[in-house]
């Protein structure tokens, strides 16, 4: 009989398969997508947030555990399991050598407005290269890989895994199993059910775009919850980013993100500002803007900058709408002209002189304006002016299965002896809300490796028990 079955094909699943195989287990990995779309959302990633007490190869300065924890605590508002969060943080400090052993390469540190050269290690070639390296390594280790094989449910004996059931009706037995099949962000019906209607009679999720794979339908997650697995998380919470409104429905990836928010102002379709654009460094705040835009009329916003901002942010894949006057820009964006000009002029008048420095929390702020802009506030007064329409882009959902430090699925508070979960399917244990750049890969890598190790141990125990 097969030792370990891994369900999923992204970073967490691959880490689990590699670790289980290294531990001597026979492993099969089932990927719902066809080969050309393998890798789930991991193919769209770029980096891993890493704790380090001193400079390390591609990481500059230091990023100690307590600072990482405080960054996570701030974005989650305390909705996190500290023990599991710290486990993730510590694991992020020592995984890169293992990753390199499996063919992952890291690029030299970035500089500039992204402000992440100290905290994040970037993959050479991005997430697609990482996924391809892991698949190559898995094949060399003898992992059986099957594509186009969605799993719809698992067969249980109490809290024990027995077999997986595929969409075609096939039943695959194994001594242990790792679930790493992603969240439900691609399931439009489930998103609609979770978000419901707002007070304006709108169905907000109908206007959401999905930044990643179309294959994360949440079928296995829902099946596990219906089978009695303990769940955690709010179904409306997700890694949700403000992205270009012209992005495709699926697989737009990182290039559709609009990164100039902190350099200007953001207005809704009524030309009103609604949040502090300069609250904190962009990598710590970019992931709140999808949800903020989702709460606006029509689930749309507009990022507005002038010529002074050009060259200070990663340019998006689509060019912005440009104009030489504010009134002309409003017209081209379809915004109410008088209200838009008034909003920008009121902001300009509220800006106080300071020493602008987009690499620091500077003293450029507004006074007497609601909402305030607390950093990087400079008048928008230098044409040409640029506008980017924004829509909420969902990366992954946080509703998932409850785990312990062994990554075990729980039933009625009791951990399963041979069923484990990693990646998006359990990220809600660490991310109750909010996000900070690269932490999703940290969670997937940490718990994928734990789940693979524990699944191999469980399989050995199952074999020894059967032999007796």
Automatic annotation (TrEMBL):
<keyword id="KW-0560">Oxidoreductase</keyword>
<dbReference type="Pfam" id="PF00890">
    <property type="entry name" value="FAD_binding_2"/>
</dbReference>
<feature type="domain" description="FAD-dependent oxidoreductase 2 FAD-binding">
    <location>
        <begin position="3"/>
        <end position="431"/>
    </location>
</feature>
<dbReference type="InterPro" id="IPR027477">
    <property type="entry name" value="Succ_DH/fumarate_Rdtase_cat_sf"/>
</dbReference>
<protein>
    <submittedName>
        <fullName>FAD-dependent tricarballylate dehydrogenase TcuA</fullName>
    </submittedName>
</protein>
<dbReference type="InterPro" id="IPR012831">
    <property type="entry name" value="CobZ"/>
</dbReference>
<keyword id="KW-0285">Flavoprotein</keyword>
<dbReference type="InterPro" id="IPR050315">
    <property type="entry name" value="FAD-oxidoreductase_2"/>
</dbReference>
<dbReference type="InterPro" id="IPR036188">
    <property type="entry name" value="FAD/NAD-bd_sf"/>
</dbReference>
<dbReference type="InterPro" id="IPR003953">
    <property type="entry name" value="FAD-dep_OxRdtase_2_FAD-bd"/>
</dbReference>
<keyword id="KW-0274">FAD</keyword>
């Amino acid at each position: 009989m097969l030792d370990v079955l891994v369900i999923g094909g992204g970073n967490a699943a691959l880490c689990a398969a590699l670790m289980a195989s290294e531990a001597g287990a026979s492993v099969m990995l089932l990927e719902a997508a066809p080969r050309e779309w393998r890798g789930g959302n991991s193919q769209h990633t770029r980096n891993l947030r890493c704790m380090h007490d001193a400079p390390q190869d591609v990481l500059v300065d230091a990023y100690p555990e307590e600072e990482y924890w405080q960054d996570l605590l701030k974005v989650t508002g305390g909705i996190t399991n500290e023990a599991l969060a710290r486990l993730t943080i510590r694991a992020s400090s020592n995984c890169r050598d293992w990753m390199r052993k499996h063919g992952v390469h890291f690029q030299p540190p970035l500089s500039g407005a992204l402000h992440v050269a100290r905290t994040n290690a970037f993959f050479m070639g991005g997430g697609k290269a990482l996924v391809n390296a892991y698949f190559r390594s898995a094949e060399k280790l003898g992992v059986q890989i099957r594509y186009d094989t969605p799993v719809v449910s698992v067969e249980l004996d109490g809290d024990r895994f027995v077999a997986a059931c595929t969409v075609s009706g096939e039943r695959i037995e194994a001594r242990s199993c790792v679930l790493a099949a992603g969240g439900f962000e691609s399931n439009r019906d489930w998103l609609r059910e979770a978000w419901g209607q707002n007070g304006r009679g709108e169905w907000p999720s109908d206007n959401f775009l999905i930044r990643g794979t179309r294959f994360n339908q949440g079928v296995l997650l829902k099946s596990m919850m219906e089978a009695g697995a303990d769940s955690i998380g709010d179904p409306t919470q997700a890694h949700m980013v403000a992205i270009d409104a012209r992005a495709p429905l699926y697989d737009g990836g990182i290039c559709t993100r609009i990164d100039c928010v902190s350099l200007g102002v953001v207005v809704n379709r009524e030309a009103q500002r609604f949040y502090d654009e300069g609250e904190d460094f962009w990598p710590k705040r970019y992931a709140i803007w999808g949800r903020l835009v989702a709460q606006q009329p029509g689930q749309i916003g507009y990022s507005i900058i002038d010529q002074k901002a050009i060259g200070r942010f990663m340019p998006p894949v689509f060019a912005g709408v440009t104009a030489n006057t504010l009134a002309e820009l409003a017209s081209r964006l379809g915004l109410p002209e008088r209200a838009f000009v008034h909003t920008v002029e009121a902001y300009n008048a509220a800006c106080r002189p300071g020493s602008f420095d987009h690499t620091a929390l500077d003293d450029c702020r507004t006074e007497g304006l609601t909402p305030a802009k607390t950093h990087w506030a400079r008048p928008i007064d230098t044409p040409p002016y640029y506008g980017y329409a924004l829509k909420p882009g969902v990366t992954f959902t946080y509703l998932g299965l409850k785990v312990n430090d062994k990554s075990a699925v729980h039933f009625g508070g009791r951990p399963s002896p041979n069923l484990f979960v990693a990646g998006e399917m359990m990220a809600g244990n660490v991310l109750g809300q909010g996000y900070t750049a690269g932490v999703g890969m940290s969670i997937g890598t940490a718990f994928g490796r734990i789940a693979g190790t524990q699944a191999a141990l469980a399989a050995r125990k199952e074999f020894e028990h059967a032999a007796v």
